[in-house]
Each structure stands twice: as C-alpha cells, then as structure tokens.
Amino acid sequence: MAECPYAVGNTIKLELGVPYESLTLTVTHIFEPFTLSCTMIGQLDHPPPGLNNSMVLKIFDRRFATQLRKDWKINAWCPDTEREYLQFIKDGKAPAFLDRLRSDKNIVSEEGDGWSIAQNEAFLHHNMQHLYNTETEVYETLKDVQGTDTPRLLASFKVSLPGLSCHYTEINGIFLQYIRGFPLNDLGKQAPPVAWQSTCEQALRLVHVLTEYGILNKDVKTRNFIVQQVTEDKQAPRFHVFMIDFALCRFRREYENENEWWRAKAHQDEEGAVGQMMQRKYLKGGFTYRPSALAEWLGDQYMREE
User: Fold this and answer.
1) Which InterPro entries match (predicted)?
2) In this structure, what CATH number is given to the domain that contains residue 242?
3) Is residue 109 part of a domain?
4) Same domain, 192 and 147
5) Which residue among 24, 142, 234, 269 is least enclosed by CB atoms within 10 Å?
6) Distance CA 17, CA 128 (A)
7) Do residue 87 and residue 203 come from a single domain?
8) Of the candidates 227, 244, 226, 223, which has an alpha carbon nearest to the alpha carbon of residue 191?
9) 54-69 pLDDT, tens digit each
C-alpha cells in the first residue's frame, strides 16, 4: 500500500471557493481507521475569514477510503493503480462507464466482479462523489441546528493534486467545527453514572431531529455521536451531544410514497441502534431505553406484519 498523505505533520494543498483560493494546511491529528472518508484535524497557515486555526476535515478520497475499498473487495491503492486509472481517463473511457453506473442499477451485481483496476477506481470515484454530495446536503438541510445538534459546516474545498486534474480525479472535502469530546460509546468510561440517562436521551432526541427534517440515517452508530462536557461540576456534570457522519443518509423525496418512507424508517430502527446498544452493550443496565411513541408505532405498523 502506498504511503498515505494524511498523516500528522504533513501539509496538504487545498482549493477553496470559485475562483479558488489556494490554502496550505498542516495535519495535527488523524482519526483512524479511515472509513468512507479520511477524517483529521488540521491548521491552516493563513485562514481566510470564517475559518479558524483548528478544524475537522473530512476528505472524500477514494484512494484511502479504507473501509469503502474493503466493503467492495477492491485492493489497496498504489501508484500503479493510479497510472492505470489516469490512462483510462486519457483514453476517453471514463464518461461512458460512469454514465452506465448512473443509469443501470444492476451493473455492479452483474459485471462488477470482472471490472479492471481502472473501472474499479472509476466506480469508487462515483461512490465518493455521491457520499460527499449527500453529506453536504444533509448539513445544508440541518442548517438551523448546526452548532447545537451537529457541528457547523464551515466550508467545502478540493484537494490539489499534481498531474492530471479533472472531474474524474477530483477529491472533495469539508471543513467542520471541531467538537472536543468523546464518542457516546465511551460514556461509561468518561462520565459518572448520574449523567448516563440524560446524555443517552439527548442522543435519541437527535435521531428524531433527522426524522423531522425528512432524513433517514443508514449509518446510526454510537460512535457517530460526540459527547462534550459543558460543566466542571464533579458531582453532577452536564454533557452536550452532537451527531456526526451523514454520508449514508437518504432523503424522504427518494421514496415513492409515505408508506415506503415509514417502512424504511421501521426497518432501519435508528432509535434502537442507539438505545439498545447503549443499554445492552456499553452501559449494561446503567441506562434504561424506553422506545418512543414513534418507534412503537413503526414496530406495530411495519415489523409485526413480517
């Protein structure tokens, strides 16, 4: 596997805005393992207005999206991989292949096992563009609750790459407000029992916020909630919960009708993915999960019939 450029101490060249402004960022911390994106904390040498010295970056880079490559059984990226992909682009084969990806929902299952290295990279590029577009649309949809229920989306950018630069090699990313805290699944280690119930209930409330905005989150995990301590009272500390990671969301408009939307909600069981896991695995009785009226209705309407 080729050395990843997203390492502590490395600098990254970024392009911000249209026409773009060239920025240099130094990586100060990385969140490993990389999954669908490469997530890190970085400092800009000369931050423009609206950005600060310490922000979270999510970079949607097919080359180092470790979990995505593993999920699709695609080998780790290396320079030879990129050479084949760039030749595929230069030969003019990328547009037709990507058009088929967009128009034929069966192409992956029917042909994917026989794809070349270059076709696999084009497929990953297509996926990364979709994940980036989804994440940014969710943040835009949730703009009224940014900074309270989610981090603030500060800006979008592109990573500057040497060599051939075009739509098919484009690497997008976002700057997010850095929330200093810990994942919800570490609540039992980081907070006293007196805070467990109320903090978990905050996380459950955030699940319902997404529903109110017409969003279904297909990646609800306890690690996708950041808990921040807001008081120093050792006897009764208070915590604030933020929800993160929205690249695998879907929107209400994508479903044929109301019935299909609520059926999808029932099958996903976003609330249970938080409540059941915290009750059974992480806090083991220190938190009592009480399904909401909506969760009970979804179960009655859509799960018992199956």
Assistant:
1) Kinase-like_dom_sf (IPR011009)
2) 1.10.510.10
3) yes
4) no
5) 234
6) 20
7) no
8) 227
9) 899 999 999 999 999 9
